[in-house]
Each structure stands twice: as C-alpha cells, then as structure tokens.
Amino acid sequence: MTMLKVRGVSRRFGGLTAVDDVSFDVHEGQIKALIGPNGAGKSTLFNCVTGFDTPHEGSVEFKGQQLVGRRPQVAVQMGLARTFQNTQLFDEMTAHENVMVGAAARHAAGFFAAALRLPTALAQEQEAAATASRLLRRTGIEEWADTFAADLPAGIRRLVEIARALATDPSMVLLDEPAAGLNATETAELVETLRRIRDDGVTVLVVEHDMGLVMEVSDEILVLDRGKKIAEGPPRMIQKDPLVIAAYLGEESDDG
Amino acid sequence: MRTVRALAPYLVAIVVAAGPFLTDDRFLLKVLTFVGLNALVIVGLALLFGFAGQVSLGHAAFVGLGAYASAVCSVRFGWPWIVGFIAAGSLAALGGLILALPSLRLKGHYLAMATLGFGELASLAFVEAEPVTGGVDGFSGIPFPSIGGFEFREPAALYWLVWAIVGIAVLLATNLTALRPGRAMRALHGSELGALASGVDTTGIKVRVFVLSATLAGLAGALYASVVGFVSPSVFTVGSSVTFLAMAVIGGTGSLAGPLVAATALTLVQYLDALIPGISRDTARIVQSFQEDVYGMSIVLVVLLAPRGVSGLLKRLGSVGRP
Asked: What is the mean pLDDT of chain A?
C-alpha cells in the first residue's frame, strides 16, 4: 500500500526553485531515505509534505487524503509525525513532559475538562503519561525522563524528539537528519531504533547525511540535487548511479 | 521541605481567608481587596504571558470594559448585580475573541502591537462615549455587589467576596496548568514549531488563553466598579496595562504563585504611606512618583538577570535542603 504519494511538487523562493517538480511514493512499512548535497531542497520538501510549508504546485496524498493546504497539527492527527534538523524540544519541560505533549495529540482540547478535573481529563492524563514512559523506554532513554530538555546532551535530545513524534501514534514519521551531532556509538544505536520503529509498523522517511547509516537502514533511497529528483531506487543501485556520484563529487569540489 | 512546599498553598489560603479577623482596619481591608482585584487580572496574565508566552499591552482595557458593562447593567438597566457581573465577563470575553482571532494568526509581536492599539483606542472610547460611560467625569452611583438579598457593603464582606472569586480562579487555573492545556501552553512558549509537530493546535490554544485572560480581567473590572462605586476612565490606561504586565513579568514564567506574589507587592507599594505608619507623605509620594520607572526597570532587570522571575526564586528556595 502506498503510504505517501507525492506528485509534481514545486516550491519557489523568489527566483530560486528550491523543489522542482518532484514526485515519489513511500510504501507502507518501508524505511526510505532522502539524500542530496547541501541546498538540494530536502528540508523544503519535508516542510511541504508535513504542512509546515505550502508547495506552489503539486499534490501530497497521505493514506489517500490530500495534505496540501492542511495545517501541521492536522497532518499529525492524520498520522504523519516529524522531527526537525534543529531539534525543537520544549526546553523548560522534562523529557517525559515533552513526550506527553505528543501523546496528547489526539486528545480533545479540554480547557473546561481540565479546569474542573473531570474524569475524562484525568483518564487522558494517565494515558498520556503511560504512553510517554513506554516510548522513553522504547527509545532507550528512560533514565533521562525527569531531566529538563535544556540540560539533555545532543544525542538524547534527538531521541526525545523521535519519542515525542512516535507518541502521536503515527503511521509514518519523517526524521530530519536524526544522526546529526551523534557519535559513532549513538549512530549505531540510532540504526537499531529506526529498525525497531519500522518493525512496530511505522513507515519512515529520513533525511540523512551519514551515508553509512543511509546505506545500512534504507529499503529505498531518493536523491535530490538542486531541487530535482535525480535518482530513486535501492541502496546498491544508488551507490553506482553516475548522476548521484557526479552530484556528490561536484559538492566536494565546491567545498575544496 | 517537601511538606512545607505542599502545605504552603493551604497556609496562604487560610491566612487570606482569615484577613478580616486579623485586622479591623477598614482602610487596610480595602487595600487588600484591591490586591485581590489585581490578583484576579494577574491569574489570567500569568496564563497568557507566563505559560503561553503571549504579551498583552491592553489588559486594562478589558478591566475597563468589565467595569463599565457592570455599571451600565446595574445603574441604567437595573439588572441584578450577578447578571451584570456575568455580562461584564462575557463582554470582555467577546472583546478578547474579536481582538485575538485576527492578531494571533500572525507571528511575532503583532499581538503586542494589536493589544497596545486596542488599549489606546479603548481608553479614548471610555472618555468619548460620554452618554454611556460618563466621559471624563466618570460613572458614579454604582451599587455594591449583592447576591440574593445580601448586599456586600462592609469592607470585610467585600474582601471575602473578591478573594473567594480569586480563590476559585486560582484553583481552576492550577488545574488547567497541571494538565494537558498547561503543557500545550508551555510547549507553545518553548517552541511553536515543536508544538505544531506534536499536534498542538497553537492558534486555538492562544485564542482560548487570550479570551480566558480577557474574561478574568473583565470580571475584575466588574468587581472593581461595585467595590469602589465609581468608575473613572483614568484607571484603564495603557499605563495600567504596563503595570499588569510588570506584575506578570516580575512574577516569572511557568507559575501562578510568582505572579500573585508580584501582584501583591506591586499593589501594596501604591499604598505605602497608609500601610507603613511613620513614613512621611512626601517620602511615599517620591517613591510612588518613580513607580512606573521602577516597573520598567524591573522588567528589564528581571529579563536580564532572573528570566524566571519571582517563580524562579520561589523554586530555588523550595529546593534548598533537598538533595
């Protein structure tokens, strides 16, 4: 089954076309990677898919429903969660409270119920707390539960954000550079975490610079360069693709 | 230490409730009633600023709206006090909603600007709408609050009425902040992107908190009008809004206790000469003439040196003696 169906998405900033007529599918149960040199348009595409940005053209269907024009929290409630390249945690809240915010994503707003401590509000509170504890265990960071997010090491911050995304009970998560700032051990653990997420039945789309990680975990890879899709396929095919090699070599010679 | 912290709210509640037994000074009771009125406004602003991170420079306008609404209801329409009280809260809520819906959809400091404009407009309107508000001369002859057949005319009765309503507001706000809405507000304050990605309806939360804080301000205004018996437009200026904001900012973020302590302290400063026997009128006047400068400077100092305000200090005190 096709989880995410992206067709002809374009997003321009002034004269620059950041994403240019990109189409791809993500199938249920897959780990798909989105790679490309810096400035290839990966984050813009991510934002267009998750409702944080609106494409000028094209359509994004998630589980058969149109996503373009919907607000981000609606996408979350439909089952599409995400993390950010620069982690967006709530610094003055503990790791557990951070994840609880995600766990309450599908609960009713409940100002009235909360102010009066109605049984529904208290039951949802317990449920959210239990979900948060479970996901902190699942991502292996339960010992950090009561630490304020501001005091967490970078690697743990990434995992808290992943746990928060999973707490919204998604069918699919989009992870924006989850390995950035992680050391080798943490990266190896992340690989295990990504596999566990997929084994739990959550489809994964991941933007990542760490090629070792991408080649190891992805079922399929999508390559962007200067806003255009230049390749799509299984890792072994992508490694040998002349266009992909040229795009990455080009980037290296720019840097040097 | 933990038990002290857990018991503190009950001790404070008992002392506040016992107020009229501790003093029979009618003036002091009046002053403490005014502390309660400001506290009611500050409960709302603590939610709006301290939890949701939204700045309002126009809350005095909602107090004014509530004050005039209740005055008009009881004097012109002859409605029972409680009806006017509810009408005042509803009108302020409606005002808050009309102001919040367009400005909260925009990002950044648009809300602060919109509330500043609204505050200025409202304080002009209170003067200009003379047939309704009495203009610069104010609105006089407002009856005392009464519920059923009981009229709250004694200072002690007024004190208890106001503080009972403050108590209810504090209780409801405490519940609100302890559960999902409180976390959503703090999340929104911490990272709006993160909140959206966690499924928080950020616009909805902002609108709700803003309307709630406007409602509390309107109720405080209605109480003020009937406690004092007279409403003057000079009370509901942007200057008063800044004072309210100062109480919320100095009180600190993520707390109700901090802003309530700050509201009490900053309200009492205004009655320095009457409260401290022996202090000369001139000394008090000099202190009071610097009041607004002091508020401005304290906001700057708090933001620079102690971003969590009084609540941060309370928390630090609370953790003394704990491992």
From this structure: 90
Contact (CB, 8 A) for B64 and B121: no
Residue A168's nearest CA partner among A78, A71, A49, A60 is: A78
Identify the CA nearest to B202 among candidates B182, B214, B216, B185.
B185
pLDDT bracket for residue B225 (50, 70, 90):
very high
CA dihedral B269, B227, B44, B108 (to 10 degrees): -80
Reported ipTM: the value is 0.91
A1 closest CA partner among A235, A233, A253, A203: A203
Range of the structural domain that residue A237 is part of: 2-255
Report whether pLDDT(A109) > 70. Answer: no
Residue matched to tokens 């693709």: A241
Could you give the number of structural domains in chain A? 1
Q: Is the dihedral of CA B284, B286, B292, B293 positive or negative?
A: negative
Comparing CB atoms, the residue among B173, B200, B208 nearest residue A101 is: B200
Give CA–CA dist B89/B66, Å, rounded: 6
Which residues in chain A have their CB less than 8 angstroms from residue B198's CB? 76, 101-102, 105, 164-165, 167-168
CATH code of residue A214:
3.40.50.300
